């Protein structure tokens, strides 16, 4: 489990570590601010569009082997990032980093399933959730600490010792898992990449109101590729898109619940710094500190959820967690015009605590609802729910801010609460007994 945790921490620490340094990188590489955003977008898009093909590949070559390959690729890409002299080279290296991260993230929950006995999978998923929260939370903080004493390439040099430690543990401890006998469908992989990539770029363009003709065309291409993908994969034993798993109502409800939860979380995470910095006039350091109660709340919920995740149904636990998260977002929406630091911190911690309470049981429900030979597909879909939800949430923030800057964060917080509440109700639908 330490091997899995180190690998996940490596991938997620770098997910947000470059954001803080974008102005410095743009200046050094003589790139515009708008172009430098691709340093972040390249990583996120490459990771999301490659998750499902890599999850299918993991079922073929072994989850541990793919995880180790991902660490090696991630370290090599980090070396390229640290030595990049132009923006295109850096963005290309970040694409490789994203693919390496996807190798790790696409199989991490599947590895947890093979590490823990069936009756204790919830404990492993809860621990994994803490590592995810810690990696995301420490990204900006680590970047700020490094940039006070060194230049931006050290944001990537630091991955080499971390990666070496993760790789050593991965070779020593990761379990050997059963493998399927077939290679993933290559055409299905291409269709999956086209569908997700085109939908993301099209949706992002519409959210920013930039070139609606091209954005609409990309969105249409993505939807058509997605429809062809579903039709093609429906009859396959080991599909790229796990259509067979999505036919299981318990799996689909868990997937959609996770997706909705992450949409709501990013509506908060992306928009809240603007309220703290621009509206309330807080410094960058204070803004970072007032976001910190979110991951702290997630980590504080871990000891509780570890004890009950394997004994109480996800329909109960995830619904309670998302309802608490929605309450935290609504309370932030109702903040007074001049709130104190305490007013903001405790509301944020409540939302984070609920989010940490919702994730592990829901992820556990996705994993235990499928047979062992489909663990790779299920693990990939856990990560698709997370990253696709985060992407849609960020698009929602962009749309609200493009529409009108005045009150945009308040609208985002209200929408975050509404989406979390709807996801709680969807999760609670699992408690309704189905007729035989």
Keywords:
transmembrane transporter activity; MFS_dom; 3 domains; globular; transmembrane helix; MFS; Growth Hormone, Chain: A; 436 residues
How do the SSEs run, as a string of H and E? HHHHHHHHHHHHHHHHHHHH
Strand segment tally: 0
CATH homologous group name of the largest domain: MFS general substrate transporter like domains
Shape: globular
CATH architecture type of the largest domain: Up-down Bundle
Largest sheet: none
In the CATH hierarchy, the third-tier topology of the largest domain is known as: Growth Hormone, Chain: A
The helix count comes to 20
SSE class = mainly alpha
The total tally of domains equals 3
How big is the Rg?
A: 21 Å
Describe this structure in words.
- The protein has 436 residues and is mostly helical.
- The chain folds into three domains: 176 residues, MFS general substrate transporter like domains (Growth Hormone, Chain: A, Up-down Bundle), CATH 1.20.1250; 52 residues; 187 residues, Growth Hormone, Chain: A (Up-down Bundle).
- Helix content is 79%, strand content 0%.
- The protein has 20 helices and no strands.
